[in-house]
Prior knowledge:
The chain is α/β, with parallel strands linked by helices. The protein has helices spanning 3-6, 95-102, 136-143, 162-171, 189-197, 212-218, 228-236, 252-258, 276-287, 292-298, 308-315; strands spanning 9-21, 30-42, 49-64, 83-93, 109-111, 122-124, 127-128, 151-154, 179-183, 204-206, 221-224, 241-243, 267-268, 304-305.
Amino acid sequence: FSEVFSKGTPTLDLRLRQESVSDDNFSKDADALTLRARLGFKTASWNGFSAVVEAEGVDAINDRYNSTANGNTSFPTVADPTGTEWNQAYLGWDSGKGTALLSCFADKIFFMFQPRRKYKNSVLCKFPVSAGKPGRDEARSRLGLDPGKPLILILGGSQGSSFINDLVLRLLPRLGFAQIVHITGEADFMRVNAAYAAHKGKHLILPACHYMSILYSAADAAVSRAGAGTLADLAFYKIPSLLIPYPLAGAHQEKNADFFSDPPSAIIIRQAEVDEDKILTAIEDLVSDNFWKLKENLAKISLSDDGADLAAKLTA
């Protein structure tokens, strides 16, 4: 059991961030320079279980800005308050081991992507999605968004992604060319919503959403994790996407994303390779229609339907 810790993996991520904001409503311009440090530890796997803890600290190298917490109200807002806090702590389980266990009792196991190991009772099938597709202009009208401005959909999976949330917030001052619909996850909603409120622009921030067909229909591009259900939806609605697969849980999302790599049907950037300039360039390319071949390949993908394929194979 001691090897769970001795063979664990420490992580350290240091980021120097500089942001300047000029606002006619203030006599002084904001000039924020901060250092963000994330220190974490992931245990080795034990019977399929692993644990992750991560703390984050932000230190201001200068304070010529309103961080929303430092009281410098004579400067424009740059939502990056200093402090140290636990960023995340969770216990994970390799879902592949759960599938292996349940395969002993199940008559059929349905997969959208070919599993890494062979199961005698495995069946490949299309992922059931809602067939409703409102028009782009109708969807934007129902959301109260601009019909003529590029719309980026930010998705972090069913629970949200603090990594993607933080990444987009750091890029927010450089995304003025687009309007954003951002699904944050319940835990991160208040923090992310407050950061958007400090910036100009028409955006829609939600903790979760039960009318995804409207959001997908309205979107020009997406930044997303690579869960199977999300990929099925993105392919069904033909949304050009930047995929940042979740690197843990057996790295199954990286395998999911690889389905979109040949032929190239999405921009795929591993989390360890994320760079803010690289991400910004990818988003700009997606909304400016530079990736016409990517979109052509995306139109050829068929991962989902209205449930007919699953129904037929359930009764076969």
